[in-house]
């Protein structure tokens, strides 16, 4: 496959492959490991994503930042406590299927190789693909196909880490009136915008397909499709110290707002069916 002129293939010192995009509309970086967007910056605007300065891109270990793909389970695998948190998609090397420049938008298609999830945890016939459309906006489409003869159920998230100048100035709009679970408690009703002034690990059930992160210096729009859950996460002081590849003060400059389907919102697919989880984010000029 030949790459458009605006896309180049690079490798980290640890030998992980990535695509660098420098187009008329944006700059971006996508790792084949995890099909993970780690940098996205529309031309003339600030970067939208946070990537840990301690990340050294080890093969088979989750990259801390950008948009990790959690699949086919989110968080811990309840029946199999020894299975890795957030599944296998984020730590597996994906196949690059296609890269195109479509009128300035870069469209990248990746596929998770069959067998990436050990059969003991995932005895199902499935295909997982990621299509990214990178222009003034980043649009990520994670599609799960049931290619077998029996239904299966999965949970998932596009675990976006957004960059913010100061977490104490941040609020998340578009959640008021929805309910969330946190630390195995709730449901609680969200009153007004959500703020982060302590460890936050909330799973919202929210129909509204568009939220805004007011960073204090700009407004990030985060839209979702095929997503009934939304996770808001910041580890704050104590948990930050315990996280891998995460600086002690990293919690001050990031917030995760994750398009998801988890817990009661798990997706069940019949044979032949497809489900697509979509997140789209961009700098918004107003709360449209
Ligand atoms: O450290 P990780 O496995 O990447 O997980 C990071 C975080 O992901 C999600 O946001 C979960 O809700 C958190 O409970 C978890 O701590």
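Q: What amino acid sequence fits the structure above?
A:
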């Amino acid at each position: 496959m030949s790459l458009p002129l605006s896309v180049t293939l690079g490798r980290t010192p640890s030998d992980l492959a990535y695509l660098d995009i420098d187009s008329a509309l944006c700059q971006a970086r996508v790792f084949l490991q995890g099909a993970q967007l780690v940098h996205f910056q529309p031309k003339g605007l600030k970067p939208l994503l946070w990537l840990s300065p301690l990340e050294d891109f080890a093969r088979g270990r989750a990259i801390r930042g950008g948009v990790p793909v959690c699949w086919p389970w989110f968080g811990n695998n309840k029946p199999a406590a020894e299975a890795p948190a957030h599944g296998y998609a984020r730590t597996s090397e994906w196949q690059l299927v296609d890269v195109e420049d479509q009128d300035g938008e870069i469209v990248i298609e990746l596929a998770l190789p069959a067998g990436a999830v050990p059969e003991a945890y995932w005895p199902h016939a499935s295909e997982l693909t990621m299509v990214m459309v990178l222009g003034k906006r980043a649009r990520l489409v994670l599609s799960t196909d049931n290619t077998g003869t029996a239904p299966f159920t999965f949970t998932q998230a596009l675990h976006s880490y957004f960059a913010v100048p100061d977490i104490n100035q941040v609020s998340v709009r578009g959640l008021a009136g929805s309910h969330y679970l946190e630390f195995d408690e709730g449901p609680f009703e969200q009153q007004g915008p959500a703020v982060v002034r302590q460890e936050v690990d909330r799973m919202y059930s929210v129909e509204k397909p568009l939220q805004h992160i007011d960073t204090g210096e700009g407004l990030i729009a985060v839209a979702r499709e095929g997503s009934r859950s939304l996770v808001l996460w910041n580890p704050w002081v104590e948990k930050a110290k315990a996280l891998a590849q995460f600086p002690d003060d990293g919690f001050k400059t990031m917030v995760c707002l994750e398009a998801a389907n988890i817990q009661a919102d798990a997706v069940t697919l019949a044979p032949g069916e497809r489900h697509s989880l979509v997140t789209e984010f961009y700098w918004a000029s107003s709360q449209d």
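Q: And what stands out in the fold?
A: The pocket of 6-O-phosphono-alpha-D-glucopyranose is lined by residues 62, 75, 85-86, 201, 231, 233, 243, 256 (CB under 6 Å).
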